[in-house]
Amino acid sequence: MLHKVITLANFKGGVGKSTSTAAIGACLAMKGYKVLLVDLDGQSNLTLYYVPNADIMEDSIFDTLVSGKAIPIINVKPNLDIVPSSLEMSSAEIAMTNTLAREQVLSRALSDVKVNYDFILIDCPPSLGIVTTNAFIAADEILVPMTPELLPLKGMKMLDSFVSSLKVVRPSVKLSGVFITRYNHRKLNKAVSEALKKRYADITFKTIIRENISIAESAGSGQSIFEYEPNSNGAKDYLELTEEILRQFNIS
Q: What pairing do the DSSP bridges indicate for beta strands 80-83 and 74-77?
C-alpha cells in the first residue's frame, strides 16, 4: 500500500475544500485505492457529505485529538472510510492548549491506522490554528483549493509563509499543489487564474474545476459527484484532477 497522507487546506472558507476532499477521495476509491477521509472542520461538511445522520454518532475526531481515544472510522462506500467531525471541533483549539506536543497529536493517532490505507485525505477548518497545524505536520502533501478571486490569491503568500514556519517541526513540509475551483468565464476569474499560474507555476495544476450546480446538489445526498451526476462537468473535472494528482506524485 502507498500510505500517502494528503491535506487539503485554505484559511479562507467557501473555496471547495470539503467538496474537493469528498470528490478526490471518492475517485481514488473508485480506482481501487483504499481511502480514509478525515474531517477536521467543526462545520462537518465533509462528514455530512456521506453521513447525513452524523449528529447521532458518539465519537468524532475531537475525542481523538482531545481525549486520546482511538480514531473512529466509518465505512461509507467500497474502499472509502471516513473519520467524522462534530460541533465540538469548534472548541478544539482551546481544548488542545495544554496538550503535550500538541502539533503532532494527529500524526500519532494516524500512525495506528495508516498501514490500512493507500491514501488518507484530511479536510481542514478555514483557519491556521493548531488543528490545521496538526494536519500539515501529518501530511506528505499539501493541496490548496482556491477560487479565482483576489483575496484568496493574496492569502496564498500568507499560507506559504505559515507552512514554511513549520519546517522546524517537520523539515519536509511544503505546499505541493494548488488548483482552481468554482471557475467561470468572468474576466476576473481569467485574470486571477493567469496570475496564480505565473506566481506558482511549479505547483499549479492544469485541471480547473468549473462552477457546476451538480457539485453543490450532490453534497449531503450520500452520493459522490460520480454517482449523483456522472456526466456532469463536476464529475469530469474531478476525475481529471485526481488523475493529474496521481501523475504529479508519480503514482500509477
A: antiparallel
What digits encode the pLDDT tens for the residues 61-71? Answer: 999 999 999 99
Neighbouring C-beta atoms of residue 10, cutoff 10 Å? 26
Cell of residue 139, nine digits? 501530511
- Tally of residues, the chain: 252
Report the DSSP beta bridge partners of residue 7: 122, 142
CA atoms within 13 A on the CB side of 179: 26
Grid cell listed for 170: 517537520
Q: Cβ contacts of residue 95 below 8 Å, gap of 6+? A: 62, 65, 66, 88
Q: Is the dihedral of CA 30, 17, 142, 243 positive or negative?
A: positive
Report the Cα 42 to chain-centroid distance in Å: 14
Three cell numbers, residue 221: 445526498
pLDDT band at 30 (very low <50, low <70, confident <90, very high): very high
- By 3-state DSSP, what share of the chain in percent is helix, strand and coil, each rounded to 5? 45, 20, 35
Instruction: List all residues 6 or more positions away from 25 whose beta carbon is below 8 Å from its beta carbon.
Output: 35, 37, 80, 119, 121
- How far is the CA of 61 from the CAs of 55, 246, 248, in angstroms? 13, 27, 30
Answer with the residue of higher pLDDT: 192 or 202. 202
Give the whole-angstrom CA distance, residue 225 versus residue 214: 7
| DSSP for residue 98 | T
- 232 and 238 Cβ atoms separated by less than 8 Å: no
User: Are 203 and 178 a contacting pair, CB within 8 Å?
Assistant: yes
